[in-house]
Amino acid sequence: MAGNDADAADATQEALITIARRIDRFDGRAKFTTWLYRVATNACLDELRRRGRRAVPGLPDHPAVEVDPSPAFDTGVVERMAIDDALAELPDEFLAPIVLRDQLGMDYAEIAETLAIPAGTVRSRIARGRSRLAESLGNHNPAVERPTPESS
Fold first, then answer.
1. Is residue 65 part of a domain?
2. Residue 85 shares a structural domain with residue 138
3. CA 46 to chain centroid
4. What pTM was estimated for this model as a whole?
5. Which of 77, 106, 133, 135 is positioned for an S-S bond with 110, CB 3.0–4.6 A?
6. Can you give the pLDDT at residue 132?
7. In this predicted model, what pLDDT tens digit does every residue of 119-144 receive, in sequence order?
8. Is 71 left (phi over 0), alpha (psi -120 to 50) or beta?
9. DSSP 36
10. Residue 120 is part of which domain span?
11. How many helices (H) and strands (E) does the chain have?
C-alpha cells in the first residue's frame, strides 16, 4: 500500500508504536486482528499523506529509457511495475479497500470494520478502484465507461 519499502517500513514502525501505546484501547468488540489491520492501515495512509507533503527529489534530465519487452526480459517485472504505478495513482479511498481485499484476502465485512465504513461502500470503492486501475493499465472496458458531460 505504501508504494515503496522505505515508506512501508516507516508505516510499520508507526503502527507498532501505536499498538504498543494504545493496546489498552482495544475493547474486544472486533477481532484483535481487525483492530491491528485498522491501526496498520491508518499508519500507512498517514505515511502516504506525509509523503505527499514531502519534496520529491528531481531526477536529472535524461531521455526516457525504452524497455525492450523481448522474451529475454522478464515481462512479469514490467507488469508488476505498471501495477505499482497504477496503484500509486489511486486515491486513498480506493487504495486501502483494494489492498485489504486483493493483497490480504480480507472479506468485505472485515474491510468495512477495519476502515469504519459500510460494507456497501467497501464494495463500491473496490469496484470503482478496480475500474480506475483497469483504465490506467490500458484495459478500458467500454461497458463500464464513465458518463461524459455530453451523455449525462
1. no
2. yes
3. 12
4. 0.59
5. 106
6. 92
7. 999 999 999 999 998 898 887 554 44
8. alpha
9. H
10. 74-152
11. 6, 0
Q: Tell me which residue of 140, 108, 142 sits closest to 126, measured CA to CA.
A: 108
**41 is written with which cell numbers?**
492501515
Q: How many C-beta neighbours within 10 Å does residue 92 have?
A: 14
Distance in angstroms (rounded) separating the CA atoms of residues 118 and 96: 14
Q: How far apart are CA 17 and CA 25, in angstroms?
A: 14
Alpha-carbon torsion (117, 11, 51, 5), positive or negative: negative
Length of the chain: 152
In the block, residue with C-alpha cell 495513482 = 89
Instruction: Name the one residue in this structure whose C-alpha cell is 508505516.
Output: 11
Q: Which cell numbers hold the place of 15? A: 503502527
Cα(80)–Cα(74) distance, rounded to whole angstroms?
Answer: 10
Residue with cell 486482528: 33
Provide the residue type at 79 as one letter: E
